[in-house]
Amino acid sequence: MNNYLRAALPVAALIFIAPAANAWNLVNSINADARQMPGAPATTVVASGSAGAYNDGNSNRYPGSALCSRGTNCRFGPVSYSQLFNGLRTITPMGCTSWNIDCWASVDTNVAINSGTSWEQAITAWQARYGSSTYRYAGYAYSVEPGWTTQICAAWAAYNGTAPGAPTIVPGTDSCATPPIPPNRCDVYGGDVNLDHGVLKLGEITGSRKELTRQVNCSRNASVRYRVSVGNPVDLGNGINSTITVNGVPAGQLITLPGGTSFLRIASTLTDRGARAGVFAKTVVLIQSFM
């Protein structure tokens, strides 16, 4: 009878599971640094943004295919859109600062795909061109129309570059938040305003009027008050008052300025309050405030 010695020999094994070749996770974010773009409509602002496609091992995260509306081919890449109160969307590809369709085809944040291309294939093509992520300083444009825009969203989509058509958003890539709306501002150009009434005769003071114009640029439509630092009318001394007006109304009253470039008409109209011979002058500051 043979006797056998049986021994349990430990066996160590290193098991490595490689991520699936096309296990993409799409991310897209709009940064809270919205600002007005020169030449853009007053109700449009832009913000920087970043987008990336990362391989995280979770394959088939985005089942389905791209459908190119009104054509057999289209573009694929990160987009933003304003979610409007009526359910409509104003979509712009990453890197476009307007809704001009020419930008949709020429912007360098997308790749060309065919209708019916799977989302996984589209993402693979995008990643092959741009790598894991990309960033744009002027990444996204969106509307800040009062009463219209409720949210700003980042997403990925297939969209036409040559003709209008509804973009197809990749399911599960939407990320929405309240839009970062920059504060309005109106910059006045042209330096100090010197309203010189010159030499006046006693008895001919009341009604004397001088006006100068200054250019003003507002981020968007604005309701503004320009108040006089010492009150209005202004006591100029020697028994003379001046009423300061801006765009035809007394300073301190509300005026409306359009977005973009317009003009301020700043005027002084004198009133004789018992004028005496001599020099009269006053330095005042106009204080700008928004309603």
Automatic annotation (TrEMBL):
Keywords of this entry: Signal
GO biological process: cell adhesion
CC annotations in GO: pilus
Top-level taxon in the UniProt lineage: Bacteria
Signal peptide: 1-23
Matching Gene3D superfamilies: Fimbrial-type adhesion domain
Protein name: Uncharacterized protein
Native organism: Pseudomonas helleri
